[in-house]
Automatic annotation (TrEMBL):
InterPro entries: GP_PDE_dom (IPR030395), PLC-like_Pdiesterase_TIM-brl (IPR017946). GO terms for molecular function: phosphoric diester hydrolase activity. Pfam families: GDPD. It comes from Heterostelium pallidum (strain ATCC 26659 / Pp 5 / PN500). GO terms for biological process: lipid metabolic process. This is GP-PDE domain-containing protein. Residues 14-285 form the GP-PDE domain. It comes from the Eukaryota.
Length: 325
């Protein structure tokens, strides 16, 4: 997972993973959301990809576009040109619908390529394939390989999907790349698909995981991304976490937003917290001494910049401009 490093530095702490960018703070899965999350101090950007009708890979979560755009339609039935005419921020509201501060501001659905190009090359990414389609895996791999060619470090991307076929196929493509470039490990990592997660959790609940996976080793994923509970079954338990760690697998819990819950999950010794509120997560980890305290968390407001102010230099303010695409 991320080669046990983050931008070249060894990591031994819980990572803040911004769900769809910073979706409770900015319009989700937009370049603005991603850059805001990085300004806040996020470690990893979590995002989603789908294919348009004409075969372009775009950054979008839902099958239907209505929730974020206010218009009917499905991503797979729209061409890229049609989709990029639509206001991606039309329905975003930071105050439960009272205001729509980013409506008609020119914020569009980004291509996956635009996302890669807009971010620092070493930005760790967690990219979820939303469709059960090997062709989408192929499209994503093409963008990942292009990013590697442009300087992105290997092992800086986790690919996830609830479906098994997309991650299986992208591992095949990654293995071909590794062989071609004489790498000793895959250049990406993947999370367990839903079927593999369910099997693992059931085995872990009955103390059978260590026995089963000793017989049938896990070699098709590196991380479990799971909720803290499924119905009455708690999944944030030492039994589950220890079983995953026993086989060298990382654990990411989703979606954790309140400061109290973030603090509790961070105390469990897991590797990642997927959150809609990276500002809350960074504050909590600062209080726990896990994240540095040298930066004041900016309050994202409607506008084209956020402000980071150093505590150690009270009179110094650094402005980071966030471009709208």
């Amino acid at each position: 997972m991320y080669a046990s490093t983050l931008n070249g530095a060894a990591i031994n702490r819980t990572l803040v993973m911004a769900h769809r960018g910073s979706r409770y703070l900015m319009p989700e899965n937009t370049i603005l959301a991603f850059k805001t999350a990085l300004d806040i101090g996020t470690d990893v950007l979590e995002t989603d990809v789908r294919a348009t009708k004409d075969g372009h890979l775009v950054v979008f979560h839902d099958k239907q576009i209505v929730r974020t755009t206010g218009l009917p339609g499905e991503v797979e039935t729209l061409t890229l040109a049609q989709l990029q005419e639509i206001d991606a921020a039309a329905m975003f509201s930071p105050d439960n619908g009272t205001t729509r501060p980013f409506r008609n501001k020119g914020i569009r659905v980004p291509l996956a390529r635009e996302m890669f190009d807009a971010l620092p090359p070493a930005t760790p990414l967690n990219i979820e394939i939303k469709e059960d389609d090997r062709n989408v895996s192929q499209l994503l791999w093409s963008e990942i390989e292009r990013a590697f060619d442009n300087g992105r470090p290997h092992r800086s991307i986790v690919v996830s999907s609830r479906f098994c076929a997309p991650t299986s196929h992208i591992r095949e493509l990654a293995a071909q790349y590794a062989s071609k470039h004489q790498l000793t490990e895959l250049p990406i990592t993947t999370s367990a698909c839903e079927k593999d997660v369910v099997r693992f959790l059931l085995l872990a609940q009955f103390f059978l995981a260590k026995i089963w996976y000793s017989w049938f080793p896990i070699n098709n994923y590196e991380v479990f991304q799971i909720p803290t509970a499924s119905g009455p079954m708690a999944l944030d338990t030492p039994r589950v976490i220890d079983a995953a760690h026993y086989f060298g697998k990382h654990v990411h819990y989703w979606v954790i937003n309140s400061p109290g819950e973030i603090d509790r999950i961070a105390s469990l010794g897991i590797e990642g917290i997927i959150t809609d509120r990276p500002d809350n997560a960074v504050r909590v980890l600062q209080q726990r001494g896990i994240k540095p305290r040298s930066w004041v968390i900016p309050k994202p407001l409607p506008g084209n910049h956020t402000v980071l102010q150093s505590n150690t230099k009270k009179k110094t303010t650094r402005v980071v401009k966030v471009k709208r695409n």
